[in-house]
C-alpha cells in the first residue's frame, strides 16, 4: 500500500492563497451544516513550558475523508530560522481507514490561517475598506497581507513589530513582493489609528491592541493567541466589537481574548454573535452597520487543515508531484 508524501515546497506550489480561501469557505460551511466533524484539539505542554504538541483531528463527511494534524507549537522560534508551527497533516479515506497522504503542516497552517481570515474579512469588513494594519512581522503577517490583498482593494498598509528592525525589513520585502507601499510604525497605536482592517499575528501573551484605539467601523482578525492564558486584545476591544468566531466550542475552551473578558465579568457566552460558517450560510448577519467594530477570533480548526490538505493531495495526484512510499496496513 502506497502513501504520498508532500513536502513544504510542493504544498506552497499547490495551495495558492486564492484557492485556499475558497477551500476554507467550503470547509466552514460544511461545519455549519454538520457535514464535518471537528472535536476540540488536544495539547500537551512540554515539561519546561517551552512548547506544545497539539493533535487536531477532523472529518469531511461528504468527501469521505478524515485526518489529523500533529504539530509542535514553539513561540520561541519567532525570529529564528524555524517556523513556530512545525509538523504534519495526515489524511485517510473513511471506507477502510486507509492512509492516503502525509503533508508538511507548516505551510498548510500558514496559508489556511490567513485564508480563513480572508473569508472573515470578505464577510465582515466594510466593502470600501482600503487601509490595512498588521501587528507582527512573522510568517502569519506575510500570509495575512497576501490574503487581505485578495479580498479588499488595499491601498495603504502599516506594520508594527515588537522588534522595530523586523517591521522595517518586513515593509521593505513585502513592498517589493506585492508592489504596494508599506510603512513601518513605532507603536501599535500609530499603526492602527486610521485602519479599516487590523490583523493581529503576534505571539504576545498580553494585550497589545487596546479598545480605546479602535477606529469606528474597523474589522479585526485576531489570530496570534491560541491558548486560554494569552490574548492580543484587551477586554475593552472585545466588549466594543461584534464577535464572530471560527467555532464556539473552541473559543469557549481556548480563546484567550474571550475567556479573559468573561473572567473579568465584562461579557458572557451571548457576546459571541455567530460562527463564521453561519455567516456563510446566511443564517446570521455579520456586519450590521458601517460604524460597527467587528472582530473575528480565529483559533484554527482541524477541518481547515483537512480541507487544505485534501486540495493539495488531489492536485499532487493530478500533477504527479509528491513522493510515494510503501506503508503497511494490508492483509492477505
Q: What would you note in describing this structure?
A:
With 332 residues, the protein is of the alpha/beta class. It has 2 domains: 2-109 and 302-326, ornithine cyclodeaminase, domain 1 (2-Layer Sandwich), CATH 3.30.1780.10; 114-297, NAD(P)-binding Rossmann-like Domain (Rossmann fold, 3-Layer(aba) Sandwich). The protein has 11 helices and 16 strands. It has helices at 8-14, 17-32, 105-124, 139-151, 164-178, 188-192, 235-240, 248-254, 256-263, 276-281, 302-319; strands at 2-6, 36-37, 42-45, 52-60, 65-73, 85-93, 99-104, 131-135, 156-160, 182-184, 197-200, 219-222, 241-245, 272-275, 293-297, 323-326. The strands form 2 sheets. Strands 1, 2, 3, 4, 5, 6, 7 and 16 form an 8-stranded mixed sheet that branches. It has an 8-stranded parallel sheet with strand order 10-9-8-11-12-15-13-14. α4 links the parallel β8 and β9. The protein is globular. The model has no long low-confidence stretch (mean pLDDT 95).
Mean pLDDT: 95
Strand content: 25-35%
Low-confidence stretches: none
What is the name of the CATH architecture of the largest domain? 3-Layer(aba) Sandwich
Largest sheet: 8 strands, mixed
Which class best fits the helix and strand makeup? Answer: alpha/beta
| Annotation field: number of helices | 11
CATH class of the largest domain: Alpha Beta
Report the C-alpha radius of gyration, rounded.
Answer: 19 Å
What spatial form do the alpha-carbon principal axes imply?
Answer: globular
Number of domains: 2
> What is the CATH topology of the largest domain?
Rossmann fold
Order of helices and strands: EHHEEEEEEHEHEHEHEEHEHHEHEHE
Helix content: 25-40%
Distance between the termini: 12 Å
